[in-house]
Amino acid sequence: ASGMAEPPRGKVYQLWFDDHGTMRSAGLMDPGRKSQAVLMEGAVDGAAGVGITVEPAGGSPQPTTTPIALMTMPA
């Protein structure tokens, strides 16, 4: 996730596993880090893809915005 702009004030980038249409939180990106290499939290089992959304500071239990990135995982 290199080159991403800082999220808007009071917001954070949140990572998600896409379990075939159901999004499951995989952690938050720290905008203060120099590198955005992030170890996602949780089991990858069953995930069809991963996504990034802009969420309120502290994150959200479910996405509140359309993903700004959504990538499928190889089968």
Question: What is the strand and helix layout of this fold?
Answer:
Elements: E1 11-19, E2 22-28, E3 49-56, E4 69-72
Antiparallel strand pairs: 1-2, 1-3, 3-4
Structural account:
The chain is built from no helices and four strands. The chain has strands at residues 11-19, 22-28, 49-56, 69-72. The model has no long low-confidence stretch (mean pLDDT 87). Strand 1 and strand 2 (22-28) form a beta hairpin. Helices cover 0% and strands 37% of the residues. It has one domain. It is an all-beta fold and 75 residues long.
- Runs in which pLDDT lies below 50 for 5 or more consecutive residues are none
Overall SS class: mainly beta
Number of helices: 0
Please give the alpha-carbon distance between the first and last residues: 22 Å
**Mind describing the biggest β-sheet?**
4 strands, antiparallel
Radius of gyration: 12 Å
Strand arrangement in the largest pleated sheet: 2-1-3-4
